[in-house]
TrEMBL record, chains A, B:
<dbReference type="Pfam" id="PF13230">
    <property type="entry name" value="GATase_4"/>
</dbReference>
<feature type="domain" description="Glutamine amidotransferase type-2">
    <location>
        <begin position="2"/>
        <end position="258"/>
    </location>
</feature>
<dbReference type="InterPro" id="IPR029055">
    <property type="entry name" value="Ntn_hydrolases_N"/>
</dbReference>
<protein>
    <submittedName>
        <fullName>Glutamine amidotransferase</fullName>
    </submittedName>
</protein>
<keyword id="KW-0315">Glutamine amidotransferase</keyword>
<dbReference type="InterPro" id="IPR026869">
    <property type="entry name" value="EgtC-like"/>
</dbReference>
<dbReference type="InterPro" id="IPR017932">
    <property type="entry name" value="GATase_2_dom"/>
</dbReference>
Length: 258, 258
């Protein structure tokens, strides 16, 4: 199995603290050694880093810990291969363009007997169930909404139906973002918290590292962190319910009625 | 205007030497300061790095100079903005998936009155003429060949026709790769050389750097380097003819008859 990390904020924020704890699980405090990846939205663009080395040993992961990249939407993944060999094309997150924007996707879990009919518009490059699910998601969104991106409530309702359909095939914890919202679906394990004023100190669970967020934020900042297993020992992480899709916008979960 | 660098090889090769000279033009020996990018194929996967900082000042460019990434197909670009503001989404190379493989594209030049009809399958995320041309190229290839990727001669003939059509709108020096071949079209300026046994020493023109390739190669290695302006002072670079599309496979230009 793999682990997921997502961040959604109202101002561009660096993910160095959370990524440092998360990447440690890629080889040191846990055995997610079969590659890792991270994608940062910056404006409409995406910085996309993938590697089949363990995150704990990767020079690119080291660079990301040293050079704060500020983003409002980030998705990261450390991989423990279940389907698909250890190869660059099988590292999450995956990126595709649809409706003139980039979509970033990462998955934790394992889908069985999942062989959806693809019409060729979005095709997997590697051989994971995850990339297949991503291609199917995009295809079905485009089939429902055509060439025009729908408003967030309609999009969220469609994603709720599609993630439920895919999750019937196994474990489908996933994160998806188009740079404006972050969608997170939980089958078995996903937690989140929102950091906002008054900010406090946080202690990483996997590393001897402490940040006092009150020193590096303004009172307006709001940051949602979504992760497979809680990253800090002294904060309250809220578990997702099984089967739940949450939509994060501007640093907090939103309730939408289509 | 911008500058292009491509590499096509018969064995995975690192591009540190050529990229070092090339990146120096992004801010030091030349004024291509408006971003840069590089994409490396590794198997079916792609490592894609883009940055809107000048290549000469970018920590990611520094990492690439220090950590040799081996690849059989690489495309790099340094940008001097002509159309589209300085932003991550406007940095080349661009990446899209078609026919279950990634396609990487970079362009040097300027297209005028170029407003092709896009059917929505491939849409630009940024606002450069270059990304628009890339989307149009892919759309037209898919329109001609449907869901099945054609053989190289047919693909090359189609690209020859399409690049000629696009080049009628202005300057269209471009590089395109799917990880198996590298296609390079010249409107105004493009040079190449093939390094093979017996390998010799090469001196960068833009940096005080020398490599003796006979020390780092085997007699079977073959590497084609394609670049806007020659990178070394002591080797013979062959100019492309205006309007010429060359196809590089396994480290050398090939002649194809569809």
């Amino acid at each position: 199995m793999c682990q997921l990390l997502g961040m959604n904020c109202n101002v561009p924020t660096d993910i160095v603290f959370s990524f440092t704890g998360f990447a440690t699980r890629g080889g040191r405090t846990d055995n997610h050694n079969d590659g890792w990846g991270i994608a940062f939205f910056e404006g409409a663009g995406v910085r996309h880093f993938v590697d089949y080395q363990a995150a704990d040993a990767s020079p690119i992961a080291r660079l990301i810990k040293q050079c704060p990249i500020k983003s409002k939407n980030v998705i990261a993944h450390i991989r423990k291969a279940t389907q698909g060999q250890v190869a660059l094309e099988n590292c999450h997150p995956f990126v595709r363009e649809m409706w003139g924007r980039y979509w970033v996707f990462a998955h934790n879990g394992d889908l069985k007997q999942f062989a959806p009919a693809l019409d060729g518009q979005f095709r997997p490059v590697g051989n994971t169930d995850s990339e297949l699910a991503f291609c199917y998601l995009l295809q079905e969104l485009r089939r429902r909404f055509g060439d025009a991106m729908p408003a967030l409530p309609e999009l969220s309702a469609a994603l709720r139906a599609l993630t439920t359909e895919i999750a019937a095939h196994g474990v489908f914890n996933m994160m998806l973002s188009d740079g404006s919202a972050l969608f997170a679906h939980c089958s078995t394990q996903l937690h989140y918290l929102v950091r906002q004023h008054p900010f406090a100190e946080a202690h990483l669970a996997d590393e001897d590292m402490i940040v006092d967020f009150s020193q590096v934020t303004t009172p307006q900042d709001r940051v949602a962190i979504i992760v497979t297993a809680p990253l800090t020992a002294n904060e309250t992480w809220l578990p997702f319910a099984s089967g739940e899709l949450k939509v994060f916008v501007e640093g907090e979960p939103v309730t939408l009625y289509a």
